[in-house]
Amino acid sequence: MSLMSLWLPIFLSAVFVFVASSVINMALKFWHAPDYRGFSNEDEVAAAIRRGNPAPGVYAMPFCSHANFKDPAIQEKFRLGPIAKINLSANGMPNLGKFLGAWFVLCLLVSVACAGLTVHALPPHAGTHAIFHTVGLAALLGYSFGEVTNSIWRMQPWIVSIKYAIDGLVYTLITAATFVWLWPVA
Questions:
Q1: What whole-number distance in Å separates Cα of residue 81 and Cα of residue 75?
Q2: 168: Cβ–Cβ under 8 A, 6 or more apart, which residues?
Q3: What are phi and psi of 84, to 5 degrees?
């Protein structure tokens, strides 16, 4: 079996996941809307950030290196707070098309990785359980497990990572079911 023989489940699973993610994020607003909060003094916070004229990137507050982590002044900043990781983008309206295009490419890459794994791990006449299990585990790694690092290292609340991991489980089931449905019969 070749990777090209799985082009249809690769493409359609990416399309189905893309549609499911649109439903989850647009129609089920109750699900992720509480994950993001605004500052009560947003204008003041934005003005303070603008004064520093920072370039797009990830910023830590308080900022320190391992060399000065034990400095009493740095420890006092941590004690007083706030402690934050802030992602800054370029100014201007976000380009939703660019984000959606990048998301679809990721969906395709996850499906290609699933196909690549199954081509090497499964015989051509594999049973539906083996296909679902193998594709599902690969898709789960691609859609869910990476989210945990945001809670471990980027201070994202665990409930947010758990909800995105649940989204990933939905995408996993869609991907695995699509591969089972469209598995080529030789």
A1: 10
A2: 140, 142, 143, 144, 145, 147
A3: -150, 150
Closest listed residue to residue 114, CA positions, set 135, 130, 129, 87 = 135
DSSP H or E run through 17 = helix 7-22
Q: What is the pLDDT of residues 66-108, one digit of tens each?
A: 888 889 999 999 999 999 999 999 999 999 999 999 999 999 9
pTM for the model stands at 0.87
Q: For residue 46, what are its two tokens?
A: 């934005």
Chain Cα centroid distance, residue 27? 19
Which residues touch 74 (CB under 8 Å, ≥6 apart)?
62, 64, 68
Q: Alpha carbon 84 to chain centroid distance?
A: 20
Q: For residue 152, which amino acid is it? A: I
Kind of pairing between the strands at 57-61 and 84-88: antiparallel
pLDDT (tens digit per residue) in 9-52: 999 999 999 999 999 999 998 899 889 899 999 999 999 999 99
Question: CA distances (Å), 121 to each of 7, 33, 59, 130, 131, in order?
Answer: 17, 40, 42, 10, 10
Q: What is the DSSP letter of 103?
A: H
